[in-house]
Amino acid sequence: MATTSRDRQAAQTRADLEDAARIVFARTGYLAAKITDITREAGRAAGSFYNHFDSKDALLLALAERFAQDADSVVAIQDPHARDSRTMRPHLEVFWQIFESNRVVIDALRDAALVNSELAANIDEFMTVQFEPWTERLRGFQRDGTELPAPPEVTAQLVASTAESFARTWRGSSEDGLEALVRFVDRAIFGTSGEMTP
Predict the structure, then answer these.
(1) Could you give the angle at the alpha carbon of 190 between the alpha carbons of 162 and 71, nearest 5°?
(2) Radius of gyration of the CA atoms of the chain, in A
(3) How many domains does the chain have?
(4) What ranges in 29-55 are assigned the alpha helix state H?
(5) In whole angstroms, what is the distance from residue 193 CA to residue 92 CA?
(6) What is the pLDDT of residues 14-55, one digit of tens each?
(7) Are 156 and 135 within 8 A, CB to CB?
(8) Residues 70 and 168 occupy one common structural domain
(9) Are 163 and 182 in the same domain?
(10) Are residues 66 and 24 in the same domain?
């Protein structure tokens, strides 16, 4: 089916609202942001918002869904042989880049979860799906004889929590931060730098 000019315009409006939301969330925080702030920033009529999203929470979840697309883009340019090594580097690289480019949305998700238990449950489910590849990789290491510090799903949570906490406080260069994180995580899991272990 051919895309019509109306379809293109609707897609552009939706993209403009999503981009505007990121700006507004960065400026005021998610909880203080109003839908009218978002539509004003986007240069759209207030009513146009509801042609695309049921609520501010729905818009936030749409922004979160971009993570998967962004992650696929990062994976596509990674060295395919890196996934054959005993290291968490491939997953940490994806995490680091996603966190850097989506911190505003990640912070908004955290804030939204504080005041909406239903949304918090949806966010928990979403994040579990996002980190499932980490768990699967750790299960593979365990099958190959690596003694993990905890069951794979718990180790994945520990690594994810460590990575996010570190990313929030790191003030140096992005490359140095990622390298430090990879070294730390690999040593915690493998007892040494994973990439150096045959």
Answers:
(1) 50
(2) 19
(3) 2
(4) 35-42
(5) 14
(6) 999 999 999 999 999 999 999 999 999 999 998 899 999 999
(7) yes
(8) yes
(9) yes
(10) no
